[in-house]
Amino acid sequence: MGLGDLLLVALVPVLKVLIITAVGLFLALDRIDLLGSTARHHLNNIVYYVFNPALVASYLAETITLERLLQLWFMPVNILLTFVIGSMLAWLLNKIVRTPQHLRGLVVGCCSAGNLGNLLLIIIPAVCNESNSPFGDPSLCTSLGNAYVSLSMSIGAIYIWTYVYIIMRVSMSNGVKSSPGENSGNTMESSTEPLLCSADAQMPLEDPLQKVHVPVGRMIAFVQQIKVLLTGETNLKVLFAPTTIAAAIGFTIGMVPLLRHALIGDSAPLEVIESSIYLVGEACIPAMTLIVGANLLRGLRSSGVGALTVLGIIVVRYIALPLIGIGIVKAAHMLGLVGSDPLYQFILMLQFALPPAMSIGTICQLFEAGESECSIILMWSYAMAAFSLTLWSTFFMWMVA
């Protein structure tokens, strides 16, 4: 596979994302006003409660079986490592650039959660269908690739809507406005009231300990907010998001033969149900991308995120994480934890080099906090991804071929 072909394979999916993002921005213009704040709020709820769960459930049910899940057991571990290592690097970045409290969760989310779904759904089939692809027969490559990507997308969604969701909620709930001149260019006035359900409003948005301007007081306040989230004082929907429930359903259908034969396949008696869910799920990716583009308009007008913060996230996602990922995947292969399938190794490495997940923008939209900052971060991250993904894809293929 030549460098020119690889360049097109890597650029096309990123360009598709950027084009749809531009459409979302256009629809949010005041003269058009099809994706104003109210429309974005309703569309975002549809993505959260309907589109994303349908996509995850249908893909898992169709491609994951018990035998295949046992073979791919290292992938959830690999994805967890991307989140944990990304969070550690984000913590260091927050310390260096002195990120405002209400944006620290956003930085953690962008550094830890990669786009493990829609980009891979475009990249992997494109790579497999190349005539000189290093991964062999196109049909077999596509079949295996869909299974790998489905598991990647579902596990990533579970981590995002539990681990990252909680961190961002705590950060945005504890956010305080800086005094004039403090952290200039890095703050904005944001609403931090959660939008998911009225029961969530019982969670205290202002803790008295926030007034204690010492590190110990801030730490105690943070721990108390974590305890509130993990106890019965908050709605369980915070921890059991619709996507998490949908992933459990998809796993169950895929791994239980009776359910699989009833729902999956052209001859299945209930195939119409699965195909309908799949059809609804297909709307998730364009809808989520349109929301990001619509939020970008607000970010272009007034953004409180600093250039150093954006640069730091790009360094973490496109330099530090891919280098660490190479070491982890190669070490796992040497220890016998990962098989010799080059496509599997390629996807494991690529999981460390992806741009931030678009679900981060969905979470910001749900909280109505950090939307403009998130849009600017995603804009620059995806602009750089056009070059970064091309270079890393070339290098990863060279390593596994």
UniProtKB/TrEMBL annotation:
GO terms for biological process: auxin-activated signaling pathway; endoplasmic reticulum to cytosol auxin transport. InterPro entries: Mem_transp_PIN-like, PILS1/3/4/5/7. It comes from Trapa incisa. Keywords: Auxin signaling pathway, Endoplasmic reticulum, Membrane, Transmembrane, Transmembrane helix, Transport. This is Auxin efflux carrier family protein. It is found in: Endoplasmic reticulum membrane. Coiled coil: none annotated. GO terms for cellular component: endoplasmic reticulum membrane. Belongs to the auxin efflux carrier (TC 2.A.69.2) family. The chain crosses the membrane at residues 6-29, 41-61, 73-93, 105-127, 147-168, 236-256, 276-297, 304-326, 346-367, 379-400. Involved in cellular auxin homeostasis by regulating auxin metabolism. Regulates intracellular auxin accumulation at the endoplasmic reticulum and thus auxin availability for nuclear auxin signaling. It is a multi-pass membrane protein. The lineage of its organism: Eukaryota, Viridiplantae, Streptophyta, Embryophyta, Tracheophyta. Pfam families: Mem_trans (PF03547).
